[in-house]
Amino acid sequence: MTQAAPTGALSGVRILDLTQVIAGPLGCMLLADLGAEVIKVEPIAGEPWRLTGQFLPGESKAYQSLNRGKQSVVLDLTQECAREVVHRLARECDVVVINYRPDVAARLGIDYETLRVLQPRLIYVDSTAFGREGPWAHRPGYDIVAQAASGLLMHRMHLDDRGFPGLSGPAAPADFATGYAIAWAVCAALFHRERTGRGQLVETSLLANALVIQGSSFMSVPAADADARAEFAADLANARAQGISFDRFVRERRAKSASVIGFGIYYRGYLTADGALAVGALSPSTRDRFRLALAIEDPMEQATGPAPPEDVIRSIEQMFRERTTDEWMEVFDRFAVPASPVWFVEEMLTNPQVVENHYVVELDHDLSGPQQMAAPPLKMSDTPPSPQHASPPLGRDTRKWLDELGYSEAEIGAMRDAGAILLAD
Questions:
Q1: What does the DSSP assignment read for 342-398?
Q2: What does the radius of gyration of the chain's CA atoms come to, in whole angstroms?
Q3: Which residue of the set 17, 33, 143, 175 is catalytic?
Q4: I need a surface site. Which of 60, 145, 204, 345 has the fewest CB within 10 A?
Q5: What pLDDT score does 301 carry?
Q6: Is residue 6 over pLDDT 70?
Q7: Third-level CATH fold of 267-347
Q8: What one-character DSSP code corresponds to residue 43?
Q9: What is the pTM assigned to this prediction?
């Protein structure tokens, strides 16, 4: 299928996408939404996310959600002739993004030092699990591993029903944060190159981004948190010395930390007469308005410690159960209290707030037909981001690029017979 020329702020920028799974594909998709031409190189069977939850051969929602607007070139990079294709592609590209295991790029000859010789102005984004330095530099990792290594997995001291460490929020926050970092870095590097003419190596990692999104929890300000950090360190050392199990320590810490900050009624979810809602009243003024909305006094003033008494919390929970979600939303709207019904993602495609802000785009996939998905997460008045097309079927653009790179029919046939490339039917 012939695709329209990309439009947007990055129109004319060409990106070689050597990434798989979530972080790299998301970063390159965001760049495609901005108008960049993105050439995704996949292995013969397709990248792993194509094969996860397939509803058609080689097609999954996981893959399609992260690879719109791209072209698919299929190469077996263990073969020299396929690596030569990548080298030729790199000469034609402004940016290379890669998130292979730390040892793979150099072994395949697609590392920064190799490709910068072929394209001196090249911007090369190297995304790893743990960074290129330190004792873990050699290790591969997925999101859950980066969460565990960064403290993010225990950010809310969540355990599953059997006491095992468990995911407590979005399935891949470190991956998705890294995807945004990749797109941000490419835009900054392109701007730098526009001013200086120089490309550069950019590095990011799941670990770095997992730390960033923890904000003040990772940050240390001795004037504010020296005692709390010392207490935690002492508790942890004591638990380990005594052989206290991990799950017991987590439960004890969770019980202790729950009483430290007075969010007991102000920042949480509630059950209502017909559903649930969440309230976020973090500032003093919004807390004042929350209490006015409920016609209650400040429970903090009734408490002996920094959190409301349990009986006060339970009485407020019961208040919420006495009205419907819509009734409570009307109350909170009158008092300008930040609140929302608790919805499921399956409801959001038709949610009026989502629809009226154009947060859904409709695309047509070559194989699976119509689809709706999240729109680009920003708007621009002069160069609006716009998905160019749905994700590509496996190998759709292999021949196109071999032709453009000057390969003859005989060379293409030889590579096909050797299993070094895959040509779409």
A1: ---GGGGGG-HHHHHTT-EEEEEETTTEEEEEEPPS---SSS-----SSPPPTTTTH
A2: 26
A3: 175
A4: 345
A5: 54
A6: no
A7: formyl-coa transferase, domain 3 (3.30.1540)
A8: -
A9: 0.92
